Amino acid sequence: MIDVINLEKHFGDNKVLNGIDVTINKGDIVVVIGPSGSGKSTFLRCLNCMEDPTGGQIIFNGVDIADLKVDINVHRRHMGMVFQHFNLFNNKTVLQNIMLAPVHLNCKDLKKAKRKNARTKFANLFRSSGNKKPLQEITETKASIIENARTQAMELLSRIGLEDKADVYPSTLSGGQKQRVAIVRSLAMNPDVILFDEPTSALDPEMVGEVLDLMKALAKDGMTMIIVTHEMGFAREVANRVLFIDEGQILESAPPDEFFAHPKNPRLKDFLSKVL
Amino acid sequence: MDNFIQKIEKFIEILIDHKGYIKVLEGLKNTLLIAVLGLIIGIVIGTVIATIRVLPKYKVLPRVLNTICSLYVALFRGTPVVVQLLVFYYVMLPLWNAHMTGVQVAILVFGLNSGAYISEIMRSGILSVDQGQMEAGRAVGLSFGTTMIKIVIPQAVKNILPTLGNEFIALIKETSVVSFVGAADLYVAFNYIGSNSYEFMVPYLTMAIIYIILVLIISLGIKIMERSLRKSDRRH
User: Fold this and answer.
1) Closest Cα to residue A30, out of A182, A232, A255?
2) What percent of chain A has pLDDT over 70?
3) Which of A176, B50, B63, B87 could form a disulfide with B123 if both were Cys (CB 3.0 to 4.6 A apart)?
4) CATH number of the CATH domain containing B111
């Protein structure tokens, strides 16, 4: 689903990513680990062009999204992202946080379809009767879009047990609750893949569990996930592939059993001996 | 003291018997009109400029727009507002062969002028909003503009509301120079009363009090607005 070919990123003279090649298939749960400053977060942020790659290709669903001419917003809809610091919209309630993107983007599509139909209708006036172009079918209205988004948002909230928090602002939530809301916010767009950028690093230890549990549940549902984390136990339990990145390159890529039990790369051996 | 009471009586006579209050009300209306519409135009211009100035700069178009905005801000911050009024009224309008009343010119010039100041205020407001908010908006597929309008600017406005209120207060007081282009504001009204009675002390004192009351009402309004905007920060 995602093919990363020779991905490079440098900030000025500072080379952060030195040619990364990796393929991520549907249903994969890939955990990325590495020492700090190794480029693992940059790698993740390049995948949805939060940072524009300076070289290489990222083929996502058949399109090279590293190309600056591509309308990245269309592809980001299919790529959720969860941040270390949650980044819930502070001026919106929890429910609005989840509904905002689906409602706005679907309404935009609806408007576009309507405009296109109006144009076709006008053009049809000048076409001979056998030559008329058919109109696009519009099944939704603005009200139905909002209603659907609300039902979906409430379903998602009930899944994480926070229905009663629907109308409060994020500032009243605990860290774990914020991160779970952030995860379902990205789920609301029905993404093909979700990128997790150290989702538990800013949490109190006792809240890490609830977030990891939600991520495990997502993994069980077959969601494709790419996770940058320091939770080695989680990586071992959930991942089906673990990548080790250092100095902007993937030094080892293996299933978790092999990765942790028989590391081949000396740099990885050294790293694992420190963290395990 | 007798003298002062006499002066007050004379002032009241002109204010009420000679219909001076109509002039005052009209002046008040014009002053408020120029300040409020000027502020609205200023906020729109200021927000647009501030947004352009925080755009990522690796493409050509944002850079060109950025330069234009810098020039605009330099121009309007670098000249006194009286000069801008005079230039607009006596240079631009004849050049364009256009006809505008003094009030219209004043609204436009004060809008353009405060736009330059508000753009800087707004820019600092936008920069004060956590970068993560923009990233989160972009990550769910919203465009730069949509994220700006729906997420970043509402939070920026909340942060800069006290400063924005300051700008409004300054604007109301600055409008007292619009008589340069023939707009009848509060100053013109009280000047009229003064010159009819050959007595300026009480009219100008009253004018000062009216300005103070206006400013007090505005600061109260800002306080109320701030409280309602802060509701997303409350923890309970």
Assistant:
1) A255
2) 100
3) B50
4) 1.10.3720.10
- The overall longest dimension of chain B from CA atoms, in Å, is 75
Inter-chain contact A76–B132, Cβ cutoff 8 Å? Answer: no
Q: Domain span at residue B129?
A: 2-235
Tally of domains in chain B: 1
Residue B1 has pLDDT above 80, yes or no: no
B140/A73 Cβ within 8 A: no
Task: Inform me whether the C-beta atom of residue A189 falls under 8 Å from chain B C-beta atoms.
Answer: yes
Please report the beta strands in chain A, taking only residues with DSSP state E, as ranges in sequence order: 2-11, 14-24, 29-33, 55-60, 63-64, 79-82, 193-197, 224-228, 241-246, 249-254
User: For A228-248, b where at least 16 C-beta lie within 10 A, e where not — what string?
Assistant: bbebbebbbebbebbbbbbeb
Q: Which of B135, B151, B231 sits opposite A50 (nearest CB)?
A: B135
Which pLDDT score is estimated for B234? Answer: 64
Question: Does A93 score more than 70 pLDDT?
Answer: yes
pLDDT confidence of A181, banded at 50, 70, 90?
A: very high
One-letter amino acid of B191: N
pLDDT tens digits for range B82-119? 999 999 999 989 999 888 888 999 999 999 999 999 99
Closest to B138 (Cα-Cα) out of A9, A62, A146, A80: A80
Q: Do A189 and B141 touch (CB under 8 A)?
A: yes
Q: Are B151 and B134 in contact (CB under 8 A)?
A: yes
For chain B positions 144-163, those within 8 Å of chain A (CB to CB) are 146, 150-151, 154-155, 158
> Which of A29-33, B9-13, B154-158 has the lowest average pLDDT?
B9-13
With an 8 Å Cβ cutoff, are B155 and A91 in contact?
yes
pLDDT beyond 80 at B180: yes
Return mean pLDDT, chain A. Answer: 90
Between A83, A85, A172, which is nearest B235 by CB? A172
| Mean pLDDT of chain B, nearest integer | 89
Distance from CA of B125 to the nearest CA of A (A): 14
Surface-to-core class of residue B13, CB atoms within 10 Å of its CB (0-12 exposed, 13-18 middle, 19+ buried): middle
A106, B42, B125 from B76: Cα distances, Å: 42, 12, 20
